């Protein structure tokens, strides 16, 4: 019954780092293992219907980020193939709908760190062919696409290559992710993109003054562009001290008050953080977020949109039909 309830209200988590965490720990995603915060069995128990799996390009691989991306993609596709009875890689909105109808976990491959493109637009098109459907343009530093959040003091935004990547992602049908971008980079994306962007794992700077969070002006602009911000469970982005579930819910209320509930989603950052906010130990804790939103007075329809409907709306508008080629 619990699974049917979640199926009627699809749950989407727009960011986890479980691919690289599992690789580093030499563990399989098809087997439950509390060494991490996410694996396929716990995603099912946590009621998740669509999970974004980020191929995070750690700076220690800066000498050959493209090769590292290939390693991670290979791990993703092998893990999905080995667990085909419960999970399916999705490349179109049609795929997502089918996976949900078959009550399978839909797995969407993303890249965190545009340096993986090695400065070549041709690589972007090949990533699309390999199943990538979302790219976080930068991590915290600077790459060929632009400046990340740690470089905001430079005033730099997207490079000419970064602009070309955004335009080509729009054409291909890939979700442009502005989390980790510098402030100028964020505004450059909003100027260039013709499709709704996302901030896959970012919170509200007004409540927690961290460069990785979004200002009120950014949240309103993201909402006006039809985009979504995924509430992130990393304590440093939630509250300076004693970050817990209630503090996270404060961010949902703040964003809703600014721009309405249609700009809010979930972007846990599980397995990219040593410990999430108090009360959310791993992906099986996600139902507590749903309960908390209801407790805060969000209606049933608003909760459905926050926990998954808003990201599904964006993906429906961004992803191309199955069979689309480069």
Structural features, described:
The protein is of the alpha/beta class. It has one domain: Alpha-Beta Barrel (TIM Barrel). Helix content is 41%, strand content 11%. The chain contains 12 helices and 9 strands. It has helices at residues 2-8, 18-25, 40-45, 65-82, 93-101, 121-129, 160-172, 183-192, 216-224, 245-259, 286-295, 300-318, and strands at residues 12-13, 50-56, 87-89, 105-112, 132-136, 175-177, 198-199, 228-231, 264-266. Strands 1, 2, 3, 4, 5 and 6 form a 6-stranded parallel β-sheet that branches. α10 (245-259) links the parallel β8 and β9 (264-266). α10 packs across α11 (286-295). The longest helix has 19 residues, at 300-318. The protein is globular and about 50 Å long. The chain starts with a helix and ends in an 8-residue tail after the last helix.
List the helices and strands and how they pair.
Layout (H helix, E strand, L loop, with lengths): L1 H7 L3 E2 L4 H8 L14 H6 L4 E7 L8 H18 L4 E3 L3 H9 L3 E8 L8 H9 L2 E5 L23 H13 L2 E3 L5 H10 L5 E2 L16 H9 L3 E4 L13 H15 L4 E3 L19 H10 L4 H19 L8
Parallel strand pairs: 1-2, 2-4, 3-4, 4-5, 5-6, 7-8, 8-9
Helix pairs in contact: 6-7, 10-11
Give the gist of this structure:
With 326 residues, this protein is of the alpha/beta class. 41% of the residues lie in helices and 11% in strands. The strands form 2 sheets. Strands 1, 2, 3, 4, 5 and 6 form a 6-stranded parallel β-sheet that branches. Strands 7-8-9 form a 3-stranded parallel β-sheet.
